[in-house]
Structure prediction request, 585 residues.
Amino acid sequence: MSTELARSVVVVAELRQGQLAPVTWELLACGRQIAQAAGLSLRAMVLGEAVREEAARLAAVGAAVCALQGPDLAQYSGQAWREVLAAALPSLQPAMVLAAHTTQGLDFAPGLALRLGAACLSGVERVTQEAGRLLFSRPAWHGKAQAQYASTAPLTVLTVQPGAFAAQAAAAERAAGSLEVRTAAPAAGPVRSLGLRRAAEQSAELAQAQVVVAAGRGVGKPENLALIRSLAACFSSAAVAGSRPVCDAGWLDYSRQVGITGATVAPRLYLACGISGARQHTAGMQGAGFIVAISLDPQAAIFNLADVCLVEDLTLFIPAFLAECGPAAA
Amino acid sequence: MNILVCLKQVCEPETAFSFQASPPRLRLPDAARYQMNSFDEYALEEALLLKERLAGVRLDALSVGPVRVAAVLQRAQGMGADRAVHVLSEQDSEALSVATWIAAWAREQDYDLILCGAMSQDAMQGLVGPLLAELLGLPLATLVVKLEPRPAQRMYVEREVEGGWRDCLELPFPALLTIQSGINRPRYPSLSNLLRAKQTRPFAIEASTLPTATSRLELVAENTPQRTRTGLRLQGSTQDKARQLAAMLRERALL
Prediction:
């Protein structure tokens, strides 16, 4: 039991442009919950070129922080991250390692878990306790179910869904944690980083719109986008958006994509039309003021985060709605 | 050049599920319909584009699962895969087991490139590809949205990252890539290829004859998702519902 007490939850901080990404504070909240439930200490690791200041911000909220610095860590690289973390983590005696369920975490966490002999669970949204065990919930079956897992391994690597835990701000009553700075120099691996390239601009109209009318795969065919556009035309400040499959199919430009890999929007009203509700999409719109979802599938995952649900065929419902709010009805 | 594409068969997103109480699990209807995981379709198409561009490419398609997944392999051959490999396994296995089985097969082959979809549509874990790369000690790039072969046995890839950015990398062969949706437009199977595929059987291996990974996770329960909002379901005819919605939006000064 005494060795149990020395074990830790280690949060792997995520940086963007050299600064702590907002999801890091959410990881810390998840980590604190696990630490309290399982009697573990809370630690964090920050990797980068010069990260002492960012590491100190994490230490200030009570985590014991280990910063790993070096010129080869200036930019994210899966190969470098796996190597440096696999070498440094064992000294912190982790029972749990938390990374963000982002394009970074998804890239390095599975391989890291294997190197550490750990279990790996991705996209965790909730942590609960049952019969003395920690249960980790993630979406399953197209988001229509929640699956709860327990780890049977001594070490578990989790990726945590952004937006699932409320970010933890500095709490005055907590004593600051320790800060240790180490130098890390990963070996030159076979993958060569050539830097970041800007690919897509997001639509300004979409970001500013009070109402977003979004089309999903359930729209069926590109011709039906005309219905979506006429629905948007009912509102004074509305923009048309789409889910990833609609943009992948070329029906809408990627600048109109809402979701993890597209825009994050928070309009007063979000009308989800034929959208199944995959996390990839909902992460980009769950902050909307009022959410109306229209889908033919009565079990669609989108209904779990909608204020109003309509199990309807879009090609019938939208014309009926237009008749209600058109000039004749007003 | 030998390429392996890993394919998962998933149930259709519109499948009507039910839940059983003990053990708490989701149940698929007997009439459930299945399809190729859409992310894997993009991976397969990317492999086919390479095959068209480079000389001497042999393309293998592999799927893990029960007898029904043969349909996915047949579709892959219909799209242009040369060989089909079926790792037969009855239950829905955890990602590490699937990756361990594929690794056992791939070690005996001589693949220059392994492509996987970025994730599966149903489970959305994104684990099999990265785990397989680690098991085989291969260089890895995930969420690839652009792939170009370069001279001297290297390739240029772009990974899609948050905020409209691309992470640009150069990798040697052999390597493993996970392919993000939208990188191409997957083709439809051709009739002549489909007819040919129907005459051949996939190379079948029983998963039980392959090395297995010790399970590290226990699935405790599957149940209805957490609801974050009220989720009021409007009732009545289509016209009734349209009227109710318009009234609700007017009440909130949204319309």
Q: What stands out?
A: Residues 122 and 159 of chain A are 5 Å apart (CA to CA). The longest strand of chain A covers residues 41-48. Residues 1-5 of chain A have pLDDT under 50 and may be disordered. Chain A has ten helices and 18 strands.
